[in-house]
Amino acid sequence: MQQTVKQKGLSLNKKKWSEIVKTTEAYARQKDAFLVQFEHVKYLHYLGEKRELRDELVKAGLPNRFGLQARQWKLALDDALHTLERQWEAAIAEVKEHLYRHKGMTDEEKHYAFWLLYRHKKHGRDWKRIQAVFTGEDVASKKINLDAKGRAKVRKYLKRTFRHVLGKKPRVKRVRSFVVDQQMYRVFTVGNRQYIAVATLVPGERVIIPLAGVHAIEGNLRVILLPDEQAVEIHLTREPKAYPPGEEEVGIDLGVTEVFTDDAGKKYRPEYGKALREMSDRILDKSQKRGKLWTLYRKFLKQDPPKARRILRHNLGLAKQTKRNKRYRARCENEINRAFNEFYKERRPKIIAYEDLAHLRGKAKSKGLTRKVSIWQRSIMKKRLEYKNRVHSVTDPGPQNAAYSSQECPKCHWVDTQNRSGDFFRCRKCEFTADADQVSAMNLKSRLHDEEQAARRRDNPVHALQRG
Ligand SMILES: [Zn+2]
């Protein structure tokens, strides 16, 4: 993941502002046109070869409907393809959720389903596999022990589930930003003031924007409109600074009360549970209330239309709700960030053992947290872990097998459901006692070296993906 640095510009005069707005509009319309054009499944494989699509369009002679310069046009294409890719990745994550819970499939069928949805860590996703789900093309590898009929059944199931989770097709809803590459801007300083000269629709002409501070600016930038101030904000993404790896092997047990517990028994951010609970209650409470209001709205629609409209405007408006949800999310996210920051600083890990994040759903469920909250939590945790691992040069071994991780004794390896009672662990065989979450973290850590288990996982990847 990359870091976003924001740099604000000073208010622009009318002429400059209008040039910037015109460029943003053309960019937004072009991006939207690309979204509409390439949203179809038949173009899906291009998400893995974005460059090829661009070259093909260039060869075909780019139809320039909105007046963008060639470079801007290519960036809008790239932007659109990334938006589509994000939507697909989110849908794939949700389809996986359904698979974890799906009970009517054999191991081999699940194995094939996960193979279709697999994303290689280094080489990325083979989009042709996802495409096959929709076209019915029979893709497989030597590792799949499932006949053609079984494979067709799995693809059919996935297709149905995708249709269910994909939702609305992405469109550009607001004219808000455009991207420029290094050749489309120039940065210079006069006195203490930094300026950026940005290319607009007119070849050779640039709008000069005075900036509020001084920054190292390079690479692709996104120019964001701030209409209230007739100013722009420049967003640049860059690789975060990397730290050398630490010394320790560490295990963590992710939670819903605290962010996680490490193998030394420290619980990171116990304040997290309350924040998460409030966010969950809030969303549940809100959606129930909204359900009732919709019923009211429909009732009044015939009897008293003005009243129905008032309900729609004042009580069912989304702006306030979105703002409040954002605040709850920000609070939880803040706790997660602080937990990881403290942990990396204190433990200086070399490698971190953790369980499959799908397990968090079970924990969230037992605390009565909503599904929406649990999905959100998992995606944030995953991103955070990946990001921090990159910054701190930590090796990611992938999720450890979490089967019996809370019932196995980390000292003598005796497995017994009775070993654990609530938050407390006491081995029925050797009397070892500890906090239950700490025990999980210790077991996950020791599984880093469990060769037999690793071999088993390699032979049957389904076991690594399913819940323990
Ligand atoms: Zn024991």
Q: Tell me the helix content.
A: 40-55%
List the domain count as a whole number.
3
- Compounds present? zinc ion
- Count of DSSP-assigned helices: 14
What does this structure look like?
The chain is α+β, with helices and mostly antiparallel strands and 468 residues long. The protein folds into 3 domains: 3-14 and 177-238, no CATH class; 40-166, no CATH class; 241-468, no CATH class. 50% of the residues lie in helices and 15% in strands. It has 14 helices and 16 strands. The strands form 5 sheets. It has a 4-stranded antiparallel beta sheet. The chain has a 4-stranded mixed beta sheet with strand order 12-11-10-13. Strand 10 and strand 11 form a beta hairpin. Mean pLDDT is 88; it is low at 456-468. The structure holds zinc ion (ZN). Zinc ion binds at residues 409, 411-412, 414, 427, 429-430, 432.
Task: Write the SSE topology.
Layout: E1 3-8, H1 14-38, H2 50-59, H3 70-101, H4 107-116, E2 119-120, E3 124-125, H5 127-135, H6 148-166, E4 177-180, E5 185-190, E6 193-199, E7 206-210, E8 221-226, E9 231-238, E10 248-254, E11 260-262, E12 267-268, H7 272-303, H8 305-315, H9 318-347, E13 349-353, H10 359-366, H11 371-391, E14 420-421, E15 424-426, E16 433-435, H12 436-446, H13 451-459, H14 461-465
Parallel strand pairs: 10-13
Antiparallel strand pairs: 1-9, 2-3, 4-8, 5-6, 6-7, 8-9, 10-11, 11-12, 14-15, 15-16
The chain binds zinc ion.
Zinc ion (ZN) is lined by residues 409, 411-412, 414, 427, 429-430, 432.
